[in-house]
Amino acid sequence: MARTIYDKPTRALLKDMLSDLGLKPGQVFTTARAIQWFQEHYPKLKPGSIRAHLVQASTNDRSRLHHPATNETDDLLFKVGSGQFRLYEPGKDPAPIHELVDGDVARQEQLGEEDDDDVSPVAREAQPGSTQFALEQDLQRYLADNLHIIEPGLTLFEDEDIKGFEYPAGGGRRIDILAVDKAGGFVVLELKVEKGYDRVVGQLLRYVNWVRKELAEPGQRVRGIIVCRTMSEDLRLACASIPDIELLEYQLSVTVSRVPVLELPK
Length: 266
Hints:
The chain is α+β, with helices and mostly antiparallel strands. The chain folds into two domains: 1-114; 116-249, Trna Endonuclease, Chain: A, domain 1. The chain has helices spanning 10-21, 31-41, 47-57, 105-111, 136-145, 200-214, 233-238; strands at residues 29-30, 77-81, 84-87, 155-156, 158-159, 162-163, 165-168, 174-180, 186-196, 222-231, 245-249. Strands 4, 7, 8, 9, 10 and 11 form a six-stranded mixed beta sheet that branches.
């Protein structure tokens, strides 16, 4: 069972909050109200963690699919707008999202069909002899499972049952990989399957400062790493005077070995 700060996991405390607020069907509450309630009753929980659990509990938010532990017991809320929720009403509301379906935006994201200015159409398909991943999700999953190749002791951040893979960072944004180093500091990884451009810096800095504000303890270090196939000179220049930002280029290597054929009886 995942480690919890209090006697109950946050997903159970969320149910306590809904009961305490005495919400009626159709009554809307905001993320700010939820954060306020937790600050009054369970102040050790960080705002970022509360936001992540609201996503997990929202039956119509596709981002909940990024949390593998999500199940029917989390079908509590219906998201009516940015930062606005009401109680989920079975039979009235659409069926909760529990898996990807054909035509789903989440499926399109998984298949890399959404437009990305940083990726050329050619790069969306693996080319013969290519030394890059075909899709950003492939790179993301590989690194999430092998964070030690980034640096020794680096592990995926765990927020009870919610892991630091596509971690929600407010406004519908998601951090590619949120990790923790061996010293206990946060590490935000921003990934680009092909070439990294200077505009990636603003995106990464936003995530780094969001983690400082919403998740980190006072004095806890938060740094960022950009991983891509090749770095543009503009990106290297943009990061030249920014502390706690590292640039990494990845390379793929595939080897094959000959296997002897079976000898059939004569």
